[in-house]
Amino acid sequence: MKSILVYFPDSSYRPTDSAIGKLNSIGLDVLSVYTTEDFPASAGGLDGIIVCCTEKSLNSWLELLMRQFELPVWWWCQSPGFLSKIQYPIEGVLTGGMSPAELQWALVVGLNNYDNRRSAKLQIEQLQEKLDERKLIERAKGILAKTTGMSEDEAFKYLRNKAMKERKKMAVISGTIVDLYGPLLER
């Protein structure tokens, strides 16, 4: 982690030299931002975001940041208050009482959690895609079995051979069959 954006949306929360100094002391380039207009056009070069706000406004600022950036976000809590529910994922809570070493560890652990969450999300998306492909293949097998009298095993072999001949995925071949014959059979 090299560069971090520190966002101070609340006028009551302003950076202290010690807070920014602690981040600088652990080797981070700090970009302090006070309004949304000052956000960089892209997240290029940024490794994360720290948002400094009250617990009451945290969820609304997290929503804005999640829409604009795909980066890990930490909350710099400057007031002792209890937040009943955080609606968006954050990597951790930072406080002014933390030493530079504690800040560094909190950022490292948070970054690891962020990477794990992104990896899990990607795996879920890939598994969902495979499941959708499998459903399409099963529907195409059913259509072939119904229209041609093939068994489901024969229909699967037909789909596999056709996909190999055309150098396409079985799901693409199955999608074509379902698109062509599915509506006719539903009548």
UniProtKB/TrEMBL annotation:
PROSITE patterns for the chain: ANTAR (PS50921)
Domain ANTAR per the UniProt entry, residue ranges: 117-178
Single Gene Ontology MF annotation: RNA binding
Pfam families with a match to the protein in the record: ANTAR
Stored InterPro entries: ANTAR, CheY-like_superfamily, WH-like_DNA-bd_sf
Protein name stated in the entry: ANTAR domain-containing protein
